[in-house]
Write a sequence for this structure.
């Protein structure tokens, strides 16, 4: 039986070990890549579902506001949907002041500011023309 020199054996073993380490590094890099892709996909799906939830919440709010405006307009003589929206906008403004005031932040809140806010919201939503 032929046996190669010890240095040749050591050299061959080193070549094989190096090849296996290179393959292991490649497999580890591929596994890390798959983990990053799966994490990104999971985050994208989470954001998508969160967006659906927010959209449904806003739709429910709008539906509720429409019902409230319609009921109020029917039950209170002489009131228009615009009057109801003005009241809602003003109450939301005061709610905001209450929440913001809890953090000791001062906001300008004279009637002209509220009127400007109402006009801006009306123009952006198309309620008022």
């Amino acid at each position: 039986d032929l046996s190669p020199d010890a240095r040749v054996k050591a050299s061959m073993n080193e070549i094989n070990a190096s090849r296996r380490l290179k393959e292991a590094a490649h497999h580890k890099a591929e596994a890390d890549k798959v983990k990053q892709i799966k994490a990104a996909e999971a985050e994208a799906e989470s954001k998508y579902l969160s967006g659906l939830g927010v959209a449904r919440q806003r739709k429910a709010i709008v539906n509720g506001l429409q019902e409230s405006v319609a009921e109020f307009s029917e039950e209170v003589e002489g009131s228009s949907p615009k009057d109801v929206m003005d009241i809602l906008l003003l109450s939301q403004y005061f709610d905001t002041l209450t929440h913001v005031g809890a953090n000791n932040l001062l906001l300008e809140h004279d009637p002209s500011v509220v009127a400007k806010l109402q006009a801006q919201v009306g123009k952006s939503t198309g309620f008022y023309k």
